[in-house]
Specification:
The protein is of the alpha/beta class. It folds into 2 domains: about 150 residues, Rossmann fold (3-Layer(aba) Sandwich); about 180 residues, Argininosuccinate synthetase, chain A, domain 2 (Alpha-Beta Complex). The chain has 12 helices and 14 strands. Helix 3 crosses helix 7. The termini are far apart.
């Protein structure tokens, strides 16, 4: 590590990465290249450029990756209906592989021999970043400051920032804010006032959704068109992946949809409490499942549901670039070839209610399912079906004297 000449830093311009930038120069006496990705976090990125310039950085990369993020990462994940531990839509997890991939590419472009991230030694992101780095460039050198330096607390980090005249952001109460991660799919909050899982989050924690109680008293109706498992239009308007998710975020946020207060099991072993807002993703999940309900065969749908927890866990744990995730993705994508059609939804005070679904590839047969007289189904066939399925149960019952 002492031979490092140039490092690509995943840089937000916030407190942690600003401190890391200064620390890298002091500790490794190396050139630092900064990379800031616009994944739809909703913040101006030019301040990050100015901060990097003030710190003497000569090579500054600021890139709009919103379309790449949604098209190549979010949508493939949503084809699987992925939920970690049954509820978490993986908003932070799915962003890390793209950031790591671009870091490795920039390292190659600039001749850097190392990459650096700002994830702590307690969390999942360190694993996600580094598994991606090593998968894409096995011999890359990785610097993880939180595992190396002696700034072992938020207080010491603030002291370092003050000593080196690094600007410290303040929240509305004049305090250093709790930890926030944001992109086009979600925004999360952890730490400080959220560390006690018994204490409910205050309303100021939320920024993308109104409280369900404050949402409109009149429901919002919306239609989403799908083609091969991916959403392509909202209310008949064709939209790019990023524009579509932005539109669903607006609709969901205005109706108080997508809030989640979760205590999750981190990959590193501890439990953590996070508060998440995923308005558009929550709508999309329900809509996609509704679309699949009439286009997927029962066996295919049930197999997908069986695989989903494993697929979600792979993403949560950082194995996006693993062969097993890619194998599962191929199977999932194969299942989506006829998941095409339209879903109609009602959005109302935190709820997403499916009201209709239609598809040119629908497997729903009203002729078969009707309660009225029909000419396509012989109800007497069910007798043999039941008896064959009951045979082993009857044999067991006789043996056991039931």
């Amino acid at each position: 590590m002492s031979e490092i000449k140039k490092v690509v830093l995943a840089y937000s311009g916030g407190l942690d990465t600003s401190v890391i930038l200064k620390w890298l120069k002091e500790t490794y006496a190396c050139e630092v290249v900064t990379f800031t990705a616009d994944l739809g976090q909703g913040e101006e990125l030019e301040p990050a450029r100015r901060k990097a310039e003030m710190a003497g950085v000569k090579q500054i990369f600021i890139e709009d990756l919103r379309e790449d993020f949604v098209r190549d990462y979010v949508f493939p994940m949503f084809r699987a209906n992925a939920l970690y531990e049954g509820v978490y839509l993986l908003g932070t997890s799915i962003a890390r592989p793209l950031i790591a991939k671009r870091q490795i590419e920039i390292a190659a472009e600039t001749g850097a021999d190392a990459v650096c991230h700002g994830a702590t030694g307690k969390g999942n992101d360190q694993v996600r970043f580094e598994l991606s780095y090593y998968a894409l460039k096995p011999d890359i050198k990785v610097i993880a400051p939180w595992r190396e330096w002696d700034l072992t607390s938020r207080t010491r980090l603030l002291e370092f920032a003050e000593k080196h005249q690094i600007p410290i952001a303040k929240d509305k109460r004049g305090e250093a804010p709790f930890s926030v991660d944001a992109n086009l799919l979600h925004i999360s909050a952890e730490g400080k006032v959220l560390e006690d899982p018994w204490v409910a989050p205050e309303e100021y924690v939320f920024s993308r959704t109104v409280a369900p109680e404050a949402a409109p008293n009149v429901p919002t109706m919306v239609e989403i068109d799908f083609e091969k498992g991916d959403p392509v239009a909202v209310d008949g308007e064709k939209l790019s992946p990023a524009a579509l998710l932005t539109r669903l975020n607006e609709l969901g946020g205005a109706n108080g949809i997508g809030r989640l207060d979760l205590v999750e099991n981190r990959f590193v072993g501890m439990k953590s409490r996070g508060v998440y807002e995923t308005p558009g993703g929550t709508i999309l999940l329900l809509a996609h499942r509704a679309m699949e309900s009439i286009t997927l065969d029962r066996g295919a749908a049930h197999l997908k549901d069986e695989m989903m927890p494993r697929y979600a866990e792979l993403i949560y744990n950082g194995f996006w670039f693993s062969p097993e995730r890619e194998m599962l993705q191929a199977l999932i994508d194969r299942s989506q070839e006829r998941v095409t059609g339209t879903v109609r939804l009602k959005l109302y005070k935190g709820n997403v209610i499916v009201e209709g679904r239609r598809s040119p590839h629908s497997l729903y047969s009203q002729a078969h399912v009707t309660f009225e007289e029909d000419s396509v189904y012989d109800q007497r066939d069910a007798q043999g079906f039941i008896k064959l399925n009951a045979l082993r149960l009857r044999l067991l019952g006789r043996r056991d004297g039931r």
